[in-house]
Amino acid sequence: MGGSHSREDIDLTSSDEEEEYDEDYDARSPISDPAASAGQRDDDLLRTATPASLEAIDAKLRSLDLKYQRSTAAKLYLHVGGASSSARWVLDERRATYAFVDKASDDSPSTRWFLEIGPGPRVSAPVDSALQLKSNPAQSRADFAAGGSVWALRLPTDAEFRRFRVDYERCLFENTYGVEATDEGRKEVFGADFAAWARPDEADDAVWADAQESLNPPVTAPMRDLLEEFEEEAGDGESIQSLALGALDNSFVVGSSGIQVVKNFHQGLHGKGASVRISGARGGSASAYSTPKKALLMCGETNMLLMSPGEALHSNGVHHVDIETGKVVAEWRFEKDGTDIAMRDIANDSKGAQLEPSGSTFLGLDDNRLCRWDMRDARGRVQTIGSSSESPVLNWSQGHQFSRGTNFQCFASTGDGSIVVGSVDGKIRLYSKSSMRMAKTAFPGLGSPITHVDVTYDGKWILGTTDTYLILICTIFKDKDGKEKTGFSGRMGNRISAPRLLKLTPLDAILAGTDNKFHGGQFSWVTENGKQEKHLVATVGKFSVIWNFQQVKDSNHECYRDQQGLKSCYCYKVVLKDESIVDSRFMHEKFVTGDSPEAPLVVATPMKVSSFSIANRR
């Protein structure tokens, strides 16, 4: 637990390892004398290069036949010792060579460019986000994860390092999108309105600066220590699957054999209460209990909807549980125009909807459907759910069935009921609370599926989760009259800022364990206008990773110095557990105490639920 980005940033320079290269040793592969002279001129050009001139530099490299295919001498280091006190970098190869190799003609044409480092090769890995490549310009060095190990490639000159970064970014773009990394290719991928996404180095950060100034104090608060307060064991034979946090008296632990009730305290979750164990369906049918894919609190947290997956993680309906009695009172079917349909996910109408005592509607999502379900019939009356053996039918009250493949994957709602939807193709769409037919704004994908999405209460910030990074998007823009709006209420046009990425360092990507994919990234929990979320949390393997929201938005933050491409933040706190973490999330803001700036963080593993407070420094 603690700040983890510093382990890898140790200066690799040492007297016995960093000898000067021999004067007759060329840092690049041998080439003819005319090309060598041109290469020297190219070095001079690279030393003074700006992002806007990278296209010209690349054209120069192409003419010299140096791009991608030519091997370049460097030093290769291997990280050993993991997170132990003896962890260190060791020199693996003093005169390593690297090359970006085109393997489009091989057996895997979908992945074109590979990074190969020899001799050997020591490393051969596709150029993609799984490398978790992190640049360190001050040391002309790039750290990355490949083959289950952490490596550092140190280039002999600043010019060689710049060339490496240019080539890496180009190979990454071409592998990700399948088009050449040219102006035409970028326009094809991002469109005219997303120039800031296509060329983030040239983008204006004014939107982020304005947002930070209007929403936060001017001084970034330091990340505080995490202190464990409570720990609850799972029951005998129980395996925890997810959490359903309440904002009132109780929260709920969803397990393999039932739903466990726990008490909410200012220090976290504690004290097991009654257990809602579902052994069969309502009406005495013999269907076995199926661990819910989703548990959704409703009606002032007195009711819960349980969504169990059917085929291919889609559900044909939900169980309706009365929490006070601990019984399933209905099994609702999803139906449209007399035909049963399936849903991928369900969500509350808004951020605070679970606290509304009379709520009867909730949102539904499937691959090509976005809708609102109503537990009342078409005439507005609550349906009878007494002893009838037939399942009541949910009323499709609002929504749209899209004819083309939108490939919706996940969604969330704002405080006013606007909806953000993430897709398999990486796109993130914003829908106003009044219409589900056409998105007001559609952000392009960055090449990775969005597996989870969250949004702040005010709708000004979106957090998308992919397997290897989180993407933070600002939805604020000013219309033609200078009025501030969000992408939920109006079309942003070309007034869109570049997003920011939240990543693990290459070392932490390995230390997180074999199941090292991000999931469930979300903001701390706010349900009131004028309140601002303070932290972001996501789960990856054995890590629960926490970012300071205010720090991530700060354009002057140290992480962003000398970065190329989209800005990436590596400053975070880690909660480390002995087994893979199932879920991590902050409790409701009402549980903030004077000793902590944030509500407790709840971390669930298959066998335990732990609560942590973010303590003020003594």
Can you describe this structure?
- The chain is mainly beta and 618 residues long.
- Helix content is 13%, strand content 35%.
- It is built from eight helices and 41 strands.
- The strands form ten sheets. A seven-stranded antiparallel beta sheet has the order 5-4-3-2-8-7-6. A five-stranded antiparallel beta sheet has the order 1-38-36-35-34. It has a five-stranded mixed beta sheet with strand order 28-29-30-33-37.
- Helix 1 crosses helix 3.
- The longest helix is centred in the N-terminal third of the chain and has 20 residues, at 158-177.
- The radius of gyration is 26 Å and the shape is globular.
- The two termini are 18 Å apart.
- Mean pLDDT is 80; it is low at 1-7, 14-52, 61-70, 213-222, 279-287 and 379-389.
- Residues 242-561 form the Vacuolar import/degradation Vid27 C-terminal domain.
- Residues 14-25 have a biased composition (Acidic residues).
- InterPro entries: CYPRO4_DUF7135 (IPR055559), Vid27 (IPR040458), VID27_C (IPR013863), WD40/YVTN_repeat-like_dom_sf (IPR015943).
- It comes from Urochloa decumbens.
- Residues 1-43 are annotated as: Disordered.
How would you summarize this macromolecular structure in one to three sentences?
By secondary structure, the protein is mostly beta strands.
Main sheet makeup? 7 strands, antiparallel
User: How much is the average pLDDT?
Assistant: 80
Q: Approximately how much beta-strand content do the residues carry?
A: 35-45%
Unreliable spans are 1-7, 14-52, 61-70, 213-222, 279-287, 379-389
What is the tally of beta strands? 41
Number of helices: 8
Class inferred from helices and paired strands: mainly beta
Span between termini: 18 Å
Oligomer: single chain
State the strand order across the main sheet: 5-4-3-2-8-7-6
Radius of gyration, rounded? 26 Å
Helix content: 10-25%
Overall shape? globular
